[in-house]
Amino acid sequence: MKAIQITETGGPEVLCLRELPIPEPGPGTALIRVHASGVNFIDVYYREGRYKAELPLVLGREGAGTIERVGEAVAEPAAQGCAVMASFSPGDSVAWCEAAGSYAEYAVVPLDKLVAVAPGLDLKLAAASMLQGMTAHYLTHSTVALKRGDTVLVHAAAGGVGLLLTQMAAQLGARVIATVSTEEKAALAREAGASEVILYSGSDFEAETMRLTDGQGVDVVYDSVGKTTFEKSLNCLRARGLLALYGASSGAVPPFDPIQLSVKGSLFLTRPALGSYIKTREELTERATEVLDWVAQGKLKVRIGHTYALAEAGQAHRDLESRKTTGKILLLDQTGRAHVGLG
Ligand code: NDP
Predict the structure, then answer these.
(1) Ligand 1 touching residue 166 (CB < 6 A)
(2) Which one, out of 32, 158, 222, 301, has a CA that is 20 to 30 A from the CA of 229?
(3) Residue to mutate (ligand 1; options 41, 143, 302; most atoms within 8 A of CB)
(4) Cα of 166 to ligand 1 centre, how many Å?
């Protein structure tokens, strides 16, 4: 099978298309024919070595496809995997995230990471919804349960997570102030439900946010940008507001003295990760099912901004890192081609 494997960490050039044996599904896992694989910023962190993994590594942690074969039953009869196992068979359409190896024609995925994809839902949309959709879901429903009247600041609002987060926050009745770097991205953020959009590439988002909130600040800042926005994000909060620092697209935030939280108004700071919000099988299925249902019903719009052939994974990373992309990026298998790229 074809797969994008890295044997060393580094820039996009380390992403190599290789011919590898089709992997064998072990106990409690399934072999999936991958139809679409999600490209996420976390893949960049693994490629760079910022997040550690054993090499060689087939990159990619999200996908959707069809089950080819289910591995043997797990040895322990009471194990969670057994109950999960009974619910999956060859031919089923499934989606997953937080399991390595999706930049490939076939992937072996633990059964307890799989969720069923309803027959009417396009596998590309399913692959595009899992990681970023569940992230937006937990940030707006669990990290904080947003409600009507809340005001939030969403950075990089035209990105993969950003567009979904903006939609969910607006649907919950929050006023969304968005930041983006270009006019094209501003239009997308507005379409997703942002009330106001700040072009933070050319203006001071802290000053603008304070102006838009009559000097009060916002209830929550969702910051995925990190290094270049962190300090000002804290300054945009009302007293006792919350900063959800959930990413570091511009680089890691340097060491920080917690006394700053006190000085700036008894603020809350969290550095959440999706894994903590889908820790149990129940939480994963509830969150994923809700997101996939919303997508199937058209309540949540997933913008697949760019698709690439598997062999072009390096270009997909370059485009993501250079802020050229909007919405979701997918790598498609040989049958699902339709290369759109950046045109
Ligand atoms: P995006 O589609 O949001 O792409 C990143 C965006 O960040 C860019 O398009 C750009 O938007 C903005 N950006 C600002 N500064 C930079 C910079 N210096 N370099 C690159 N991009 C920059 O990516 P994702 O939706 O995949 O992920 C967004 C972030 O969320 C990532 O940091 C990711 O790691 C994190 N994440 C965290 C999760 C969690 O559970 N904690 C789960 C999923 C994602 P603009 O041009 O408008 O500034």
Answers:
(1) no
(2) 301
(3) 41
(4) 14
Task: List the pLDDT tens digit at each of the 343 positions of the chain.
Answer: 999 999 999 999 999 999 999 999 999 999 999 999 999 999 999 999 999 999 999 999 999 999 999 998 776 555 555 556 568 999 999 999 999 999 999 999 999 999 999 999 999 999 999 999 999 999 999 999 999 999 999 999 999 999 999 999 999 999 999 999 999 999 999 999 999 999 999 999 999 999 999 999 999 999 999 999 999 999 999 999 999 999 999 999 999 999 999 999 999 999 999 999 999 999 999 999 999 999 999 999 999 999 999 999 999 999 999 999 999 999 997 554 443 343 3
Cβ–ligand 1 contact at 185 (below 6 Å): yes
How close is the Cα of 41 to the center of ligand 1, in Å?
A: 6
CA of 204 to the centre of ligand 1 (A): 19
Distance 42 CA to ligand 1 centre (A): 9
Is 249 touching ligand 1 by the criterion CB < 6 Å? yes
Q: At 165, which amino acid appears? A: L
Q: Is the CB of 38 under 6 A from ligand 1?
A: no
Position in ligand 1 atom list of the atom nearest CA 326: 2
Q: Which two tokens stand for residue 198?
A: 């700040």
